[in-house]
Automatic annotation (TrEMBL):
The keyword Lyase applies. Pfam families: ECH_1. It comes from Metabacillus endolithicus. Signal peptide: none annotated. This is Enoyl-CoA hydratase-related protein. The lineage of its organism: Bacteria, Bacillati, Bacillota, Bacilli, Bacillales.
Amino acid sequence: MTYEFLLCEIEENVAVVTINRPPVNPLNTVVFQELSTLFDVLDADDEVRAIILTGSGEKAFVAGADINEMASLDLVGVNKMNKVSRTVFSKIEQTTKPVIAALNGLALGGGLELALACDLRISSDRAKFAFPEVGLGIIPGGGGTQRLQKIVGQGIAKELLYFGDMFDANRALELRIVNKVVPAEEVLGAAKEWAKKLAQKPPVALQMVKTAVNVGGNTDLESGLIIESTCFGNAFSTQDRIEGLQAFVEKRKPVYTGR
């Protein structure tokens, strides 16, 4: 399948998805729809065990939503666009495979919201971040107010959301918004290194970890422990669990099949 604004390459069980609307890769309705379709395809593909999401060029990962499109919409239209964005960000967050954002440049507004929906984030040392929406008379509508505070806490989240100031990759690392900062030319390579390592791990176990963390993190401790126990049982019932334990005893590298 071909896409107007997305590129996708699959190699060694890793899919690299590139948002291709240079120079700054803004998000519009078509991009949202294409991301939704492509992530359905990748999630259903057993050959894909990890996904990297990045932007084309060196200037931006995603420099926000397409303001030209938003400015032309009335309340009904913008609510439809907002629903599409929230849906696809949640789909990315709930994808059964690990998703790594390779932040090759600006991640602003909706671009930062998109990054926060991914499991892991590797940033260029030249990347810049911000939630500038309040300065435009609006607020983040793709989950930014909710996902951000779960990472940095309410106080810092309000600071970043109220003022909308730009901050650099080192600040993003300090706030744990990103997991790692590397030189600009190494961003995609670093993401591929992580993705290839994840692709060698048992897929069901990774899926169960993701479910336990994502779902359990939105509930109370006792409910979270029940979710964890259920996920533990699901992972324990797999053939990969047998292979993993047997390989450990035999002192060899396990070969996981996703079964």
